[in-house]
Amino acid sequence: MDKVSPDCPYPGCFFCVMKEGNPSKRRASILKFFRELPSQDDDGQVLPISGLWNTAMAHPNDPEFIELGIFECMVALIWKGLKNRRWLSHDQNIYIPYYAAHIIGSYTMNMEEFAESAIHAGVTPPLVELLRGRLTWVEQRVAVRALGHLATYTNTFPAVASHSEILELAIQLAMSSLEIVYSHFYQYADRRLSYHCDLLTRGMGGVEMESRKAEEWASQLQCWSLQLINCFAFKPEFLPTICKPEFLVKLPGMWGGLVNENSPAGIGLLRTICHHKLGRGPVASCPGIIEALCNIARSSDDWQYMAIDCLLWLIQDPSTCHKVIDKAVPALVDLAEITNLGDHKKLGDYIVNVLQECLQSQGTGRNTISNHVKELIEELLNSKQRLKWEKSMPKEDLHIKQAAALVVKLEGNSLFSSGNIAGAASKYSEALSLCPMRSKKERVVLYSNRAQCHLLLQQPLAAISDATRALCLHSPLNRHAKSLWRRAQAYDMLDLAKESLLDAILFINECSQSNDPDLSLRQNKVPDYAERLVKKQMRAAWLFREAAIKHGGVHGEGDAGDIYGQESDGSEWETASESDIGNDGRAEMGDDDDDDSEWKNEDKRKDKYDKVTLKGKI
């Protein structure tokens, strides 16, 4: 290939080829370049590969390079790196297998016809070798990404599935990825491979940035492994391989972290598994999963609906209902006031219908419903019947009920202020029984106030239940600041760090937008009590925590700050009963009285709401 630019010292330079003005000559030169590159041993080969990498990311739907043989070229380069370690260690060739696999993944993530071309070019076998760990975790990350894209399409999935080891490798990688990255890279900064550091930071950062990016890449390695497994989970014949207890029990804890919040991760795979009858049995029989699903279903996480779907499918399946009903029903009852959640319209009504059918189908033997569950469902059905009755009531009668509820609520506030917490909780319950069902704003306040009472009475489960009901009633959904904070504290009492962290961050977000002077962040300052809880839970929910404990990086709770960052001060975090509720640190109820405008004008509400992402605030 003749060089084009007289200033370029490299014959056949890719960048010079790309400047060729004649389209037919340009295509011919690119075709020749792709064919000859794998057989060349010249220095500087990484430069055109990195250029192709940039092009693939910027224009993944452009067919030109696909037609000219880029997949065949990348396949040959990966094989060369796997088979010729001398070449791999020369110059900067160590980067080439990573870039080659990344290019394959970028060109196959959107276009099925490109994926078909990649399969015909033979990309699967070398990607599988990278997935095995023949090189390092960095290459595993881009290999599992590319295989996940290939497995997404109907026409290319069989080619991926024909390699029987891929599923097993992906499962092992999903379970071990965080430990691999921690022990092979994060733990010892002075032992990090230089090309790993360069790839992570593009030469723009030091040790601290490398560590942050390593956490992000480790999360991606795990989440992309789960995405690949999810493609197999849609096929019932692969469920026996996937639904092994040692793997299922870990799925709820695979959540992507704050660095990868856009991935459904473990809960997304659980939803796919629960969609099949063959998958529901193992899930229902696996200890701990149902409790985790209930926590996610109650959460304000973006993937809340996935956990709700799982619980509903498990309840509706006669073969699994008896295994999950005692734990699933309380969570679903708490969620019955949800109107719409994402694409799920009238979700609360659907939950009520499912629970009603469950109650009506109760029988003997293993399908028997416990008295507690029966009472919960009947109470829910009675509340829905009460709503129907209230629609036919005269307005004067409703106003009387509203006034009576307000009086009882104020009595509860007075008891709370005097220290009679149990008495206050009882009054809030009485007010709820009087308060009209359609007066949602006031019911939000009553549930939230009762949740605070449960906190002070050391009843975190009851506090979570009431705070969740308040958040479901609130408009917009899951955005009542004080309920978020109270539930965050309740989760903290139960050592549920991830759930507490998400609620605490959303609480801070809501405070930043609130017009309430008790909640608004003056001068954009995060409340000290919220900052302390977020710091604590970020350490406890740190993606590498389990791996760090195993490898000696963390020996216990007291050592957590040594690896994730020290506290800004040396103070201990208060117990939930002592934590701050208002901006001055006192647990108080009177600050909710500004919501009494519900009685005067139920229609005066703010309709606009701009969601702030968790990642943005952190």
TrEMBL record:
Residue segments, region Disordered: 555-618
Annotated Basic and acidic residues bias: 598-618
Coiled coil regions, renumbered to chain: none
Transmembrane segments: none
Pfam assignment, any one: ARM_7
Residue intervals of the ARM repeat N-terminal plant domain: 7-244
Protein name: ARM repeat N-terminal plant domain-containing protein
The species this protein was found in: Populus tomentosa
